[in-house]
Every structure is written in C-alpha cells, then in structure tokens.
Amino acid sequence: MNVEIINEAKSRSAEISNSILNWGEKNLRSFPWRKNPDPYRILIAEILLKRTTATAVNRIYNEFIGLYPDLKALAKANIDELEDFLQTIGYHKQRSKILKKISRVILNEYNAEIPSDFDSLIAIPNIGPYTAGAVLSLGYGIRAAMVDSNVLRIYKRVFFKSLPNKAVNNVINKVAKIILPQKRHAKFNLALLDLGGLICTYRNTHCLKCPIRNFCDSSSIKK
C-alpha cells in the first residue's frame, strides 16, 4: 500500500505543485515574519505560533523582534518580563522557558549560529521536524518540507484512496518530500500552509475554490 501512495504522489507531483504555486501568487497571506525572513526571525515566529493563532502573533511579532533582535538578547531576557510580554498570546510561561532554552543551547553549543542542517536543528530541545523545515526552507533557502497539521490534512485528503492502514503520518512526510518542488520551495510551503488555513480547513472543504481539486481523491467537484 505504501508503494501505491508513493507512486501516486510521483505521478501527481508536478500538477499539484504547479497548481499550488500558481494559487499562491495571488493568495498568500501577509505576515511580518514572511517579510525579509532570516533563520532567527523564522525560528522565533514558529515558536510564537505554537498553540495560538497567526492573528495573535501578528499583533506582537514586530515588537518582540525589536525587544529581542537576536539570540544573545533573548538569552539575556528577564524571564518575568518575557512572560508578561507573551501573556496576550497564551501559553506564556512555557513559551518563555522554551525561547530561553533554545537561545542558550544555540549560543553555547552552536557558537550562536542557528544550524543549517535538519539533524542538528531537531537535536535542539523543542525544535521538531516542522520547525526545522521552516528554518531551512524559509530562513536558509534550503529545500525542506514543512509538514504541520494543515499539510497532513491536505495530503490525507488528496491521497485518501491510497492511504496505508498504519504509520500514515510517516508516509505523508515522504509524500510531502516528493511533491515539494526543487525550486520555489519556500513559496510552495507558504502557499500549502495557507491553502490549509483558508480553503482545505479542518471543519470545511471549499473544494470549488481549491486549485488542486482535480487531483484530489476527496474532492466532489472537478472541472
């Protein structure tokens, strides 16, 4: 069964990636962390975005970067002040500890340089595969898939007829790497995330507006 979904991904990859990229040209959402991104700004954005909404993070992101413009400033931050600042987006005590720990680990173990390889990134506490992919693709321009709950949902729907009975998420991660284009991977990743946030949502599927409905097993609307 895994062979079937991998073959399906290969056969549909060009059409899916091109359609998503074309859709993204007119529909990408605008957030401050997407403008002039660098590894630090992307890393901070992904940590802030955990367990909250992009709208909430959007309200505080620029001020956060102004207060803590780099890892050294973040590592030196007063924990109480950091918690107070992050209170409006929730999960503030845990988030503050995570930010402090990550900054100190990178300063002490990586000479203040955010790693540019996947294995080193996920070795840092509280950095998982999705965040590592974001830092690589968006921050460093290195081809890497970004698979969060939105992307998992999209690919599970697209390849519904070929889904295996076990280890579905592991297989979807392989599918994501196959479909990810060699060029313009960062724009593709952002477009795919926004497709999940705007069109192929958790509660509703707006198939009529979906650019990949013709290649989706779950879509009832085809051209």
Describe the structure.
The protein is mainly α and 223 residues long. It folds into two domains: 1-29 and 146-215, Endonuclease Iii, domain 2 (Orthogonal Bundle), CATH 1.10.1670.10; 32-140, Hypothetical protein, domain 2 (Endonuclease III, domain 1), CATH 1.10.340.30. Helix content is 61%, strand content 0%. It contains eleven helices and no strands. Helix 2 packs antiparallel against helix 8. The chain is globular.
CATH class of the largest domain: Mainly Alpha
Mean pLDDT level: 96
What class, by secondary structure content? mainly alpha
Examine the secondary-structure arrangement and name the CATH architecture of the largest domain: Orthogonal Bundle
The name of the CATH topology of the largest domain is Endonuclease III, domain 1
Number of strand elements = 0
Would you list the SSEs in sequence order as H and E?
A: HHHHHHHHHHH
Instruction: Give the helix level as a range of percent.
Output: 55-70%
Shape: globular
Radius of gyration: 18 Å
Total individual domains: 2
With helices defined by DSSP (H or I, 4 residues minimum), what is the helix count?
11
CATH homologous superfamily annotation of the largest domain:
Hypothetical protein, domain 2
Span between termini: 28 Å
Poorly predicted runs = none
State which percent range the strand residues make up: under 5%
Main beta sheet: none
